[in-house]
Amino acid sequence: MAPRVSDHQSPLPVSEATGLALPPSSQAEDLRPRWTVLDSLLCGAFAGAIAKTVIAPLDRTKIIFQVSTNRFSAKEAFRLIYCSYMKDGLLSLWRGNSATMMRVMPYAAIQFCSHDQYKQLLGGYYGYQGKALPPFQRFLAGSLAGTTAAMLTYPLDMVRARMAVTAREMYSNIMHVFVRISQEEGVRTLYRGFTPTIMGVIPYAGITFFTYETLKKLHTEKTKRPQPYPLERLAFGACAGLIGQSASYPLDVVRRRMQTAGVTGWSYGTILGTMREIVAREGVVRGLYKGLSMNWIKGPIAVGISLSTFDITHSLLLKLHQMGYFAH
């Protein structure tokens, strides 16, 4: 999920932490109580939902290749999309997206909101309250935010992966997935792949938040402009997403293999065992990095849309608060 740093939390005219312009002190005092945790949760949920819906067909295709032993190529990926469309119709490309929405909306909301809270906690603990966090603390705040969100929404990620790689006849809806997995494979199966997920989220979220904030800070120092333009913000988010996803991608493949083992016929017990089996059968690059090139396409799109949508809804909510449409 792509991170975004709130523009209102530093008391300085230009935030040292984010490089974003802040209103004059009198206006800032007026705005602070109006931007609530609920606002942050709503904006994050909406941004995550829009971004994931747009790239859902590419995401589903990537998962199908990740959990199979077939070689990945752009030609084969788009052939799979075309065949799915011809066989099952246009909506089949969004199969599993309802489960994605149930996961990504709380995931994005929790991640955006908790990141601000961790920044405040770390800033107070290390003596950087109201100032830019050092690089390691900046990375730590992002990692903690991603870990918090992943821990609270993991079973929904498992359900989404199962729906993405199976036919409608096997799982008719989200509740059917939960019930059938619990009855046939046990409740613990809903948490299969949890460890590689957390191990992947720590570098992914940490690097993504760190890169995005650092690029915005450097931009402000270089251009002397308080805020980047929308296209610049999109580019910063795309770079952050690319670096973060590339660093943690092998663990994403391992996670998907373990999540879908019950329906693909393979048996994966541990992280190292899964990695060894993938490398032995498919090689390092074509196994552990299968589908990464598609991630380089969909990742920047998702991050850019998420950041832009969050910015728009953030500004809209602040304006509505100022106009007195919401009680506070």
Automatic annotation (TrEMBL):
Annotated function: Mitochondrial carrier mediating the transport of coenzyme A (CoA) in mitochondria in exchange for intramitochondrial (deoxy)adenine nucleotides and adenosine 3',5'-diphosphate.
GO cellular component, one term: mitochondrial inner membrane
Membrane-protein topology: Multi-pass membrane protein
Full protein name: Mitochondrial coenzyme A transporter SLC25A42
Compartments it resides in: Mitochondrion inner membrane
Lineage: Eukaryota, Metazoa, Chordata, Craniata, Vertebrata
Pfam short name (any one): Mito_carr
Coiled-coil residue spans: none
One record GO biological process: transmembrane transport
PANTHER family: SOLUTE CARRIER FAMILY 25 (PTHR24089)
Entry keywords, A to Z: Membrane, Mitochondrion, Mitochondrion inner membrane, Repeat, Transmembrane, Transmembrane helix, Transport
Family classification: Belongs to the mitochondrial carrier (TC 2.A.29) family.
Solcar-type repeats, residues: 35-121, 133-218, 228-316
Catalytic reaction annotation: dADP(in) + ADP(out) = dADP(out) + ADP(in); adenosine 3',5'-bisphosphate(in) + ADP(out) = adenosine 3',5'-bisphosphate(out) + ADP(in); ADP(in) + ATP(out) = ADP(out) + ATP(in); 3'-dephospho-CoA(in) + ADP(out) = 3'-dephospho-CoA(out) + ADP(in)
Renumbered residue ranges of the record's region Disordered: 1-26
